[in-house]
């Protein structure tokens, strides 16, 4: 096992930031801690890094490659960090920023100067900033600075890389490029990485496994496919993208996540791309609604509707499918959910 977190609780005064959290991260995995602001992601990452204490209790432990690291100092954990606000040293050039972690080493771990130069230049090539090594941070773009921060973290040859919203401050295009670049980097140098994000798209696109957090607890963990297609509860389905909530009968033919609601009048969730729209009410009966807005810029057509109860409904379909019907704002249509998701527990219906 790469990293194992056992029964970690952390209180700030009377506020519980982490509540008995257990987590296993396999060697070589890239794991996303995903959750809304204040859900405890950063606190968990800092505890893994050794930057934050946790509340002592029976059975708590943090293991790196099956060995407890409790009591080990940050420097002894062979962890590289990249934090959003952990800025580069402004008065140091790119080269010196990256070399920093190697130059502060003392004793037998200290490398000779020519070895340090060699390693730093390799990293500069890896982050594709050849030729910019003598620039100062404020002569770089945001994306270039983040890559330097990554190189600085990697200079000490960590086994573990911990990233807290590493691309948070960057614009969408740069974020996307850096995400792909990070994924390739992680694979090529065989790291075990954990990154914090509140962006579900980033987590689903980048991670091998997604850990969905809420109020100091893990709601669900699994591959991006598992958490997206088999959400365990209302929180997870709502957090992982747009979803519609309806109330109605579940029929035996409905493909729901369980059979809790069959034949009864209950709430269910439907993703926007799992809805069909018709002009005529189909035999099985649809939900009446009016088209409010159609957005065609992008890979899919997005249609916003309002049902007769005044509730918003979001539908997505391919442009090909949209081209068949050309639904227009103001039109009256019928909504037919294709895949309904129902949850078993009463609190999931507490809407
Ligand atoms: P964000 O996405 O906003 O960074 P997060 O999920 O990373 O959120 P944390 O930073 O782990 O959340 O914080 C979890 C909770 O603990 C928050 O409610 C926060 O206010 C609280 N908290 C964090 N650090 C402290 C502190 N030093 N003292 C008191 N409360 C704190």
> Would you tell me the structural class of the helices and strands?
alpha+beta
Evaluate the radius of gyration: 25 Å
Major sheet description: 6 strands, mixed
- Strand percentage lies at 25-35%
Instruction: Provide the CATH top-level class of the largest domain.
Output: Alpha Beta
> Distance N terminus to C terminus?
39 Å
**Would you list the SSEs in sequence order as H and E?**
EEEHEEEHHHEHEHEEHHEEEEEEHE
* Uncertain stretches: 255-262
**The CATH H-level homologous superfamily of the largest domain:** P-loop containing nucleotide triphosphate hydrolases
Helical proportion? 25-40%
Give the mean pLDDT: 89
By DSSP (H or I, 4+ residues per run), the number of helices equals 9
| Count of distinct structural domains | 2
Write out the strand line-up for the largest beta sheet, numbering strands in chain order. 6-7-8-3-9-10
Any idea what the shape is? globular
Task: List each distinct ligand once.
Answer: adenosine-5'-triphosphate
CATH level 3 topology of the largest domain: Rossmann fold
């Amino acid at each position: 096992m790469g990293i194992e977190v056992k029964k970690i609780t952390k209180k700030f005064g009377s506020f519980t930031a982490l509540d008995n959290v257990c987590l296993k991260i396999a060697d070589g995995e890239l794991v996303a801690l995903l959750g809304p602001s204040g859900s405890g992601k950063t606190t968990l990452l800092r505890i893994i890094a050794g930057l934050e204490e946790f509340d002592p209790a029976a059975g708590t432990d943090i293991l790196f490659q099956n060995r407890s690291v409790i009591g080990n100092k940050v420097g002894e954990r062979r962890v590289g960090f990249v934090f959003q606000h952990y800025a580069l040293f402004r008065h140091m050039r790119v080269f010196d920023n990256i070399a920093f972690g190697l130059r502060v080493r003392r004793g037998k771990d200290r490398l000779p100067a020519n070895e340090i130069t060699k390693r730093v230049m390799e990293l500069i090539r890896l982050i594709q900033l050849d030729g910019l090594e003598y620039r100062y941070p404020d002569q770089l773009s945001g994306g270039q600075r983040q890559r330097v921060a990554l190189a600085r973290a990697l200079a000490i040859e960590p086994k573990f890389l911990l990233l807290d919203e590493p691309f948070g401050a960057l614009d969408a295009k740069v974020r996307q490029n850096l995400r792909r670049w990070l994924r390739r980097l992680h694979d090529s140098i065989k790291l075990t990485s954990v990154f914090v994000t509140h962006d579900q798209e980033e987590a689903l696109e980048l991670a091998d496994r997604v850990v969905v957090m809420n109020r100091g607890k893990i709601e669900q963990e699994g591959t991006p496919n598992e958490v997206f297609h088999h959400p365990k509860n209302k929180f997870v389905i709502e957090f992982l993208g747009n979803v519609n909530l309806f109330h109605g009968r579940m029929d035996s033919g409905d493909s729901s996540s369980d059979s809790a609601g069959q034949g009864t009048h209950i709430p269910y969730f439907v993703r926007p791309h799992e809805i069909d729209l018709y002009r005529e009410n189909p035999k099985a009966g649809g939900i009446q609604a009016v088209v409010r807005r159609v957005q065609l810029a992008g890979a899919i057509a997005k249609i916003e509707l309002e049902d007769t109860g005044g509730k918003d409904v979001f539908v997505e379909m391919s442009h090909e499918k949209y081209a068949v019907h050309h639904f227009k704002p103001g039109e009256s249509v019928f909504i037919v959910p294709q895949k309904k998701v129902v949850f078993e527990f009463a609190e999931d219906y507490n809407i």
